Amino acid sequence: MTQLQGRFALVTGATSGFGLAIARRLAAEGCAVAATGRREDRLRALVDELKRAHGVDARAIPFDVRDRDAVERALQGAGDLLERVDIVVNNAGLAAGLAPVQSADPDDWNRMIDTNVKGLLWVTRTVLPGMIERKRGDVVNIGSVAGHQPYGGGSVYAATKFAVRAINDALRYDVLGTGVRVINVEPGLAETEFSLVRFAGDASRAKQVYVGTVPLLAEDVADAVAWSVTRPPHVNIQQILLMPTDQASAYAVHRRPV
What we know:
By secondary structure, this protein is an alpha/beta fold. It has nine helices and seven strands; from the N terminus they run E-H-E-H-E-H-H-E-H-E-H-E-H-H-H-E.
């Protein structure tokens, strides 16, 4: 297996949830980490933690992935980052609301499309040319079971995750022969800030999503990412659909009496 010692990862949405766990896991294995997100105070705290705990090169790069100019400006101005980065984890994403199309807030749609699809594209477009030039690199996109199975109230969120699948599959044609790998990690039910964000901070409603079941942890997703990027260079793990044992599909979740 290739090792993460000496590699350099860019992780978007690293202030919480999957992104935070992924940044920690990669750094623990010796990988340098550039952590991005909108909450600069959390990024600074994370970078201090990674440096102190693992002695790695860790950098905080605050920006909103929805802002194409901000993405390009931040990454192009981040010293030698574009010359070194050989892992990009496009994790930044969200679900907003759970209303049907006829009553949903179109502003929520814009947030999801701009973050989950366009943001992924802006970041990838900025870092990918350097990877291709160096003939190595891993593009890891965090999808969802919703990219396979839409559900009521989740039409636009599911559409964004179907788009992530399409981008992954097409991107492999674009980079074929360059040595760059494209990986899609698609979690099912996982307990992070996801539901809290979806329900606009309603902690009680968010907690109900996980009652009576054992969901994935952010660390489970980080484990899948770390495993996929440490395969031998000739092996591309194209897709990992990662579900808790208590979940059979987007619709079928086993819940115990509480």
